[in-house]
Amino acid sequence: MRARRQVVIADAHRLWRHTLRKVLEGFGAYCVVGEAASGEALLEQAERTRPDIILTDAILPALDGIEVLKRLRGIAPVPRALVLSEIEDPEVVREAFAAGAMGYVSKREDLVVLRRALGAVCGGVSFLSPRVARGILEFAQGEAVGRSFGRKSIPLVELELLRFLAKGWSDKVIAAALGLGLEAVNYYRLDLLRRLPRMTPTSDPRL
Length: 207
Fold this sequence. Notes:
Largest sheet: 6 strands, parallel
């Protein structure tokens, strides 16, 4: 029998952490080995338990969730990080992936999306939930009409990829629709996220 993946959950709300623990253990493939209510506590838990997966909010007290992702790179082996947050702002998503996240899921998604995300991240594949992808698609289309997108126009294949992700299509279905391999789908998704330009919002969505 395959060993369950070890997970540390980080969220400021105790009830949410408790619910997530029940959900993850109900999936059958995961074992929650630690919980953290702050960024500092998450780093301590990660150092102590050396989990396979970090499931964290983008907002954490004491030490911001994005900063924690950067510092997790100093842990060996580096745990794979999945962000689960109410924030769907493209700039925060960009920062999360730049800091080392492998996936980003909106808390407003169904549990089946979270399960898919965990499976993808465990397999070393990036993941964007449909709601998050829709937000990036709207931003990308606005950039295509107005300013340049990372000093380049958006490649058609990446724009199509975003449209399919926003519909909740699986990588396998997207690969077939675009005539690509699964590795190529993952490559284009990461390439797009890494090239997202910095935005200049009037206020930080994490505040």
